[in-house]
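Reopening this ticket.

The earlier resolution said the output was attached, but the attachment link was broken on my side. Pasting everything inline this time so it's all in one place.
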Amino acid sequence: MKRIGLFALCLLALNACAQKENTYSLTGKIGNYNDPAEIYLQYVENNDVVSRSGKLKDGKFSFEGTILSPTGGRLVILPKGGKINNNRPYEESLSFILSDEKIEVNSPDLLQNATISGSKLNAEHRQLTDSIAAMNTKVDLLVQEYRKAPFELANSKEYALGVERRYQTLQAEIINTYMTFIKEHPDSYASVLAIKELEQQTNNINLADSLLKGLSPEIQNTDEGLILTKRIGTSKLTAIGSVAPDFTLNNAKGEPVSLSDFRGKYLLIDFWASWCGPCRRENPNLVNIYNWYKNRNFEILGVSIDQPTDKYGWTTAIEKDHLTWPQLLDVTGQKESVALQYNISTIPQNLLLDPNGVIVAKNLRGDALPAKLSELLN
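Inline output:
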């Protein structure tokens, strides 16, 4: 599953309100790096990726400066020096929260193995993420148990229901852990990050809205708080029961096609890309569903977030996967991007519209899509 945008911490920010500047101090020692090794500090502020670089002497480094509010940051080490690429992930990197604290980052060898000290905010966030990671491990073990079960046992209704109940219990524990942390830390920037993760897992925009409003005004007005506020507003526009916003994109021939052209049919908007493995693995299922329902007042509209410069990869994937329904190319990362308009942060994702353009379901994959279509079309 891939994310859209710059490096993991880089999110589009709204213009910040007038805020006082906060001084940060970031020091540490990573292994025994020396020239030409270079270390970069990056964070997002007021729509811009701020990059600062420094030399390493016996692994030691130091950064000081001011920020308007806590923000997501990352450190990157280039062992041979050089210029950093904002769009590229690096093996020698560490994500953290940059705040007005005296933060220390130390590792005997590699940056990704570093420990962070001197920061209450990072400690709070680490405690939460460790708790969630432990519960996700239990989920993974449960899935493995089910996959390794003997055929007869796995197909036993009683066993399958038992596994489902255990799975739902674990999911409820994860949600409760997020909510407890958020309610107990209304003044913590980590709570904004927790709400963001919770919303992505549950797709419950009303819950995210309620939790965000419970945070202190200072935290709501951080860049990440304002981003989340905008995200919630956008999500409400594409919530189940809303009329899907109209858009116009070009097909492979360069011809403009509008969403409103498909009124009168049930329509699945499928967000995908040629480079997305899960999307490509889902395509054979979509092909079977399309061939079964295409003459029953049903249509699919593919919206690809492939780069315009990789049009060949996009059209090749369409042909190779036998995608015979209409396909459009989005302009990813631009203000007019349909993916941004529809709040699409991961793919594959889809929305099912009724003949009036009203969103009736989201993210129907596997057996869920034909089950829903059977319900609606019959």
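Reporter confirms the inline version is readable. The chain has three domains: 2-116, 121-237, 248-377. The mean pLDDT is 89.
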